Amino acid sequence: MASKALAVIVGVGPGTGASIARRFAQSYNVVVLARNPDNYSPVVQEITSNGGQAVGISTDVSNSNSVNAAFDQIEKQFPGSPLAAAIFNTGGGAVRKPFLELTEDDFSNALNSQAKGGFNFAKRALPLLLKAKDSSAHPPTLIFTGATASVRGSANFAAFAATKFALRALAQSLAREFGPQGIHVSHAIIDGVIDIPRTKAWVFEHEDAKLSPDAIADSYWHLHTQPRTTFAFELDLRPYVEKW
Amino acid sequence: MASKALAVIVGVGPGTGASIARRFAQSYNVVVLARNPDNYSPVVQEITSNGGQAVGISTDVSNSNSVNAAFDQIEKQFPGSPLAAAIFNTGGGAVRKPFLELTEDDFSNALNSQAKGGFNFAKRALPLLLKAKDSSAHPPTLIFTGATASVRGSANFAAFAATKFALRALAQSLAREFGPQGIHVSHAIIDGVIDIPRTKAWVFEHEDAKLSPDAIADSYWHLHTQPRTTFAFELDLRPYVEKW
Amino acid sequence: MASKALAVIVGVGPGTGASIARRFAQSYNVVVLARNPDNYSPVVQEITSNGGQAVGISTDVSNSNSVNAAFDQIEKQFPGSPLAAAIFNTGGGAVRKPFLELTEDDFSNALNSQAKGGFNFAKRALPLLLKAKDSSAHPPTLIFTGATASVRGSANFAAFAATKFALRALAQSLAREFGPQGIHVSHAIIDGVIDIPRTKAWVFEHEDAKLSPDAIADSYWHLHTQPRTTFAFELDLRPYVEKW
Amino acid sequence: MASKALAVIVGVGPGTGASIARRFAQSYNVVVLARNPDNYSPVVQEITSNGGQAVGISTDVSNSNSVNAAFDQIEKQFPGSPLAAAIFNTGGGAVRKPFLELTEDDFSNALNSQAKGGFNFAKRALPLLLKAKDSSAHPPTLIFTGATASVRGSANFAAFAATKFALRALAQSLAREFGPQGIHVSHAIIDGVIDIPRTKAWVFEHEDAKLSPDAIADSYWHLHTQPRTTFAFELDLRPYVEKW
After folding, report:
1. Where are the domains of chain C?
2. Across the interface, which of A176, A208, A236 has its CB nearest the CB of D228?
3. How many Å apart are CA B134 and CA D80, to the nearest integer?
4. Is A136 helix (H, G, I), strand (E, B) or coil?
5. pLDDT tens for each residue of D38-62
6. Predicted confidence (pLDDT) per residue in A99-111, tens digit
7. Which residue numbers of B have CB closer than 8 Å to A's CBs?
8. CATH architecture label of A6-237
9. What's the rounded Cα separation, in Å, for the pair D40 and D29?
10. Cα distance from B143 to chain C (closest Cα, Å)?
């Protein structure tokens, strides 16, 4: 279990996270993190039963102790395995409320799940990515999943936009600091509804109006395979009929 | 003390905050908030001795209890006084460190001082601004002070950029929600070194290379006096020789 | 007629241009340029009959010969008069068509009226603004009027967005080159319908839903009076009920 | 020669254009356009001698007659061949001069080569892309090559930034109009020096400091293969050590 490279994905439910895990499992061992094992267990089983290697660890990304415990376990379970890719894909904090109804807890929880969560994750992932630089087929990669709210503070989205803007700032800052050290840091703006079990019932006027989680995963894999001469920092992804 | 309108400014030290207080004190009673009374006392005395009305309240903007206590005191001390302007100008969170040296406390403190502070302040200011709509000479105004880090995540500025991006998201979201209700929400990007006591010794190649706090205050006053037909949301201010 | 400073405004019809002319005529002699004398004559008469000094010159800003002739006449008519402000406010090129119906002439005319027009105007204005540096009460100022289309390429607006994006690029480039030489270059994004004779009949759901040309002029004057320590480059102006 | 799909690339010299042609020639017949046959002949020969199909047509993209003649020839030579991809990659207009030394011709040439050229190219490409919708393996794709100057008006780059901003506006407008019709319109911001014969002698402090044209081509191919559920509009590409 030692030498094959590793991808760690946080925020793995039945949607984008699972697609990313599947895609990266074609080349790497994968570790998937989520609060609730029910979220990651199906994809772990699926990858394993297809002959891949996947491990799930129950993790609360907004809590540094929990993130640290997860990474301690990863390092114990995959000693010497270089970290090729770390992907931050949590969905927390997406509260929508008129501002005067937004509670202090709503706002703090939003900040903690994305901005603080991204910080906790990057703190543990970056040293491993740096260590993997010479043994990785592609430049070690750290990708953050953004949203429309990463670049637009809409009415009733004060909390979500605040934490998504903050996460984008973190991604930019890390790209500028760790890019020159050979780490590929990227930020993907997912602008639209993703086609996942939770949104299955949402009907749109046009067909194909929801983002494909597999296609998002393909774009993340493309980012990962870019050589250091030609890093993309930011990518916006949306369905062809999306208004923007 | 009842009917004259009120301006509340948080983040008042000897620099921009004091200039804003002085400028708005030409027309309003002013309340200045800062953690340390040493920061606001000189400008309170100056305004008072010039015949104006100014009150300082020691406040920790990152703490909602402290902000609530301050606003409770304001409402008691100025009953019936419409809130014409609320200005969020705190300087906290400006830590500069390589990311791997940044502690969890650094990051949390940064998020708390600007993003959370802005939230706490807006939660109490907005109901008062809404109430003042019909009695105010100019549209009630909420201004947030931004920085270069509000729009650029530079290397070694992960924490400060995260919280400044978040504050800008908050400002945008509030502008879109409360603009149509007649409240003028603005965000000013201060891009450069401000000419304050702390930066007096900083020497630049060219003269006039530092932002004037009085000129910043004049721009804030201009924003405040715009009619609702013609609101500016964002303004970037920098010295003529600043690289950008 | 020699020593009083001068403001030159191009694109003067009965709307924003006239308001800017009126506002700057409170302090300066003004020269107003437009293709059709019918557009500028009323405001010239109004300023003159109020004791101000105003001159109109028929000019096609997309034609460098015409712009050169206008500036030659200005220099002859106001010898020694420092150029305090030059304002580019033309409205040309605002064609709205499905792309496949857009003709080559539509596209070229749009590029010529704004991008090329801005170039022609700046080429003649900047040497005069530089010469005025030491004799002007405020830093000599060059302001470009932008629109929603300056920052957003909407469907059916390919030509107008192309030329407005180009004009903004020109403004940014000039701000970075001439700012350090003491010239204040600004760009105002006018995002909404302006309340002018042509739009009088347009009815909106809310009152005050159109931008006030006088308020726009006040913001331009504010930009002009900023000291070089504290230049704003960009300002977005919109009615309080505008969606953005 | 009828049914295999087609890619048309304009701006093909020994750098990015040739790499794009090579990459798309793995799946399509390619037509390469450039002013000077010396620029496209080597890649045409290379592709042909490797068993691919490539045709070069001498074209001045700033001249609509020349673009029309090229497309007329394409339609004659490849009747019934669906246009899968059209790529606008011209390098013209990159003049760098202090503004007051910039001539009217410099500015007009810059506007013509990119903004006008992009217009001429899109006018002929879009009807063919629309027609190819049902016969193309991937959504028909129109990609524009941008540069740092597409999003930043630097000092001494007024002409190049104006035309690159305009081209980006065109791309945005077309993406919003033709995306819902199933055409994938993208804009790539190439931020840095590309590793081509002309820049071979440019030495940088770090190795791999220049963009790889082949890696750019891989990203363009990735854009092309995205399904319509998940279109990227914009991508920024730069070397890992690039300052931004």
Report:
1. 6-237
2. A208
3. 68
4. coil
5. 999 999 999 999 999 999 999 999 9
6. 999 999 999 999 9
7. 64, 98-100, 102, 104, 107-108, 111, 115-116, 119-120, 122-123, 126-127, 149, 152-158, 161-178
8. 3-Layer(aba) Sandwich (3.40)
9. 15
10. 14
